[in-house]
Amino acid sequence: MNNFISVHDVTDINALVQKALAYKADPLKDKLLGANKRLGLLFLNPSLRTRLSTQVAAANLGMEAIVFNVDKEGWTLEFEEGAIMSGNTVEHIKDAAPILGSYFNVLCIRTFPSLKNREDDYSELFISQFIKYCGVPVISLESATLHPLQSLTDIITIQEVMAKEELKQKKAKPKIVLTWAPHVKPLPQCVANSFAQWINAWGEADFVITHPEDYELAEQFSKGATITHDQDEALKDADFVYVKNWSTYNDYGKIYENDPAWMLTEEKLKLTNQAKVMHCLPVRRNVELSDEVLDSASSVVTRQASNRVWAAQAVLSEILKAKQ
Ligand code: CP
């Protein structure tokens, strides 16, 4: 593995999941793999889980991690080629990225979308320019359209639940439902896009996406899933329910609908096969997901978030081994 930007950087999803679970069983088994190596974590947007889990993962591999909050402490970066920098941007990525590449062996970057211009966001200009100019392996900590470390974690958690036989009914293929949820502000499509991309690529689930009308995700990610506007129908016999809000893709970055009836409740969960409930966090309680569900035995959100460490450790390990 050279970069980790999407599922396309992974040759064998199940092997990567097993690697992550092996680190969970024995976190320090490769404690010298990253010795004398430095990891740079650049944040253009806030984070709790991604930032800390990646730092812990690096420490488990003996690697030094340095965090730079670019949005608060750095110069405002320009990403457009040929830009006349007479506005607010101070430093071009063409100048900054090679310097960062000379300080670090591996770089990680979080760059959220603007949600203003779909073509710009979906071109993934920021992370592409960063990869083009930094000269070292790059790991996405969530980009304009995808969140691959989250999605790897999600599949790790699903496989862990299945391996421990925590589902009511053993099935060859679990039914996994990605359901839209209400929110108070427009959110990126990244987590939903990425989850859809990974579950479709994994190919070992009966995968359903449910959302209100006009909340279609980009087909490049959702194609392969069954898509329905009937949430109750989607939830029937589900083994996993992944709850997430996203803003509109077609008329980009809008909130069209915020019907609280889309919030997952204990009553709705009765339609499922005693499904495990997932969410990437942070979650707006009693807007996206009810207290009763989040605080019940159905919820695996804390385990899911703690598994972020093992996903990051498996990816860092792959990249370090490829460079040996
Ligand atoms: N799920 C997730 O990426 O969390 P943070 O935004 O806190 O990193």
UniProtKB/TrEMBL annotation:
It comes from the Bacteria. It catalyses: N(2)-succinyl-L-ornithine + carbamoyl phosphate = N(2)-succinyl-L-citrulline + phosphate + H(+). Gene3D superfamilies: Aspartate/ornithine carbamoyltransferase. Residues 207-317 form the Aspartate/ornithine carbamoyltransferase Asp/Orn-binding domain. Its EC number is 2.1.3.11. InterPro entries: ArgF'-like, Asp/Orn_carbamoyltranf_P-bd, Asp/Orn_carbamoylTrfase, Asp/Orn_carbamoylTrfase_sf, Asp_carbamoyltransf_Asp/Orn-bd. GO terms for molecular function: amino acid binding; ornithine carbamoyltransferase activity. Keywords: Amino-acid biosynthesis, Arginine biosynthesis, Transferase. Residues 3-160 form the Aspartate/ornithine carbamoyltransferase carbamoyl-P binding domain. N(2)-succinyl-L-ornithine binds at E142, H183, K244, R284. Carbamoyl phosphate binds at S47, L48, R49, T50, W75, R110, H147, P148, L149, Q150, C280, L281, R308. Pathway: Amino-acid biosynthesis; L-arginine biosynthesis. Homotrimer. PANTHER family: ORNITHINE CARBAMOYLTRANSFERASE, MITOCHONDRIAL, ORNITHINE TRANSCARBAMYLASE, MITOCHONDRIAL. Catalyzes the transfer of the carbamoyl group from carbamoyl phosphate to the delta-amino group of N(2)-succinyl-L-ornithine to produce N(2)-succinyl-L-citrulline. Is essential for arginine biosynthesis. Belongs to the aspartate/ornithine carbamoyltransferase superfamily. SOTCase family. This is N-succinylornithine carbamoyltransferase. It comes from Filimonas effusa. The lineage of its organism: Bacteria, Pseudomonadati, Bacteroidota, Chitinophagia, Chitinophagales. The gene is argF'.
